[in-house]
Amino acid sequence: MQLPKLILTDIDGVWTDGSMYYSSDGAEFKRFNTFDSFGVLLARKAGIPVGIITGEDTEMVERRSKKLKLEFLVQGSSDKVADATEICKQLGIQLSDVAYIGDDIGDYKLLQACGISGAPSNAAEFVKQEVDYVTSLGGGSGAFRDFVEYIFKEVGVYDKYLDQLKQ
What we know:
The protein is an alpha/beta fold. It has seven helices and eight strands.
């Protein structure tokens, strides 16, 4: 395994627990776990861009993406493989250079097409059967971080980048 040239992620069910919260006045809420931010920091330290591809289209995801200064955000995706391919074209890379984590049917084809695939521990069973790595953590509990750490550990560079982040 080599470090990917791009890390992409779904949001609902990966960075969140998949729940959607609605207030009585119609406001919608999502709960993000800051534990996942470390996965972004680790990727950034290694020079790997991170992006979100989601079927949803919400201001909350846009705000989270901006706060973490993610390089790519595709919302309202109806074809995640096509959207990932377009990002790859912009970077001059192939889908085989991409690591992707997702949890359900909308992620299935991209998980099969990318170079390194992952799923949270609470993902759909048929998804977990297809991926390279099932995280020890569930969606909304640090699954993205666990996936990125897994990749860096498998490549043998986790300690190097962790030490750099500690300084």
